[in-house]
Amino acid sequence: MDQLEKTITSLEVAEMVGKQHKEVLRDIRRIAEQLAERKNALSELFIESTYEDSTGRELPCYLLTKKGCELFSTRMTGTKGTQFALAYIERFNAMEKHINDKQIKLPDSPREILKLMFEYQEGTAERVDVIEDDLNDLKNNQLLTEPDYRTISSMVRNKVRILCSQQHLNNKAKAELFKDLNGGIKRITGVVARNRIKAKQFDEVIEFINNWIPSTATMTIIKQMELIKDE
User: Fold this and answer.
1) CA 20 to 30 Å from 148, out of 56, 115, 140, 171?
2) Is the pLDDT score of 51 beyond 70?
3) CB neighbour list of residue 97: distance below 8 Å, 6 or more residues apart
4) CB distance 65 to 44 below 8 Å
């Protein structure tokens, strides 16, 4: 499985266990300290990463493997521990099933291609249809590549920076603009975090960022902040 698909983020873990993200980060770092002498083992549990918050800041997070979730769950007791164990088991089982269902070997030689054609002519057209459906499904659900993710992040920062420069807006106003733009991206893609945007949505997101203007509500909030500052 792709790294982004075979892990869950510490943000998702925080939501599952009903904790603040900073508390989950603290717990993971404590585990990491205890395993400092076993760096190879640590890399199979927790992978350092980053995410952008609603204001555009790049903040630390972790990607947890299934083993990482299992270890993290040992630090929890009672109902919350049981609920977290059930939640991550269901998530990873669903991800593994999805990936396993899509592990289709495509023809890579003329002989194999001819064999597939003969099978089709012999009355197995439904098999080809299934392969095509699965390939289309896999393509439609493929996540952004890391370069595309960075491109979107850079465009978001530049869009807000240019607008703030043109209108001489302060950092508080900048935070509202980031919140507006990031919220719009999440709404049009239907995701909770940018690393869950699908590859097929890349062009749509780029066009949205290029055409984006702040909402009336956001600009009203910014004007209100300006009035308060001048009082």
Assistant:
1) 171
2) yes
3) none
4) yes
Q: Is the pLDDT of residue 225 over 70?
A: yes
CB 11 within 8 A of CB 21: yes
Phi-psi region of 56 (alpha: psi -120 to 50; beta: other; left: phi over 0): left
Mapped onto helix, strand or coil, the DSSP state of residue 91 is helix
**Whether 62 contacts 9, CB under 8 Å:** yes
Q: pLDDT digits over 147-204, tens only?
A: 888 899 999 999 999 999 998 999 888 999 999 999 999 999 998 887 788 888 999 9
What residues have CB less than 8 Å from 188, skipping those under 6 apart? 201, 204, 205, 208
Query: How much is the pLDDT for 1?
Result: 40
Q: Does 124 have pLDDT greater than 50?
A: no
Task: Tell me which amino acid residue 101 is.
Answer: D
DSSP string, 9-56: EHHHHHHHHT--HHHHHHHHHHHHHHTTT-HHHHHTTEEEEEEE-TTS
Q: What pLDDT does 139 receive?
A: 62
- CB of 25 within 8 A of CB of 62? yes
The Cα–Cα gap between 2 and 169 comes to: 41
Report the C-alpha gap between 160 and 18 in whole angstroms.
Answer: 32
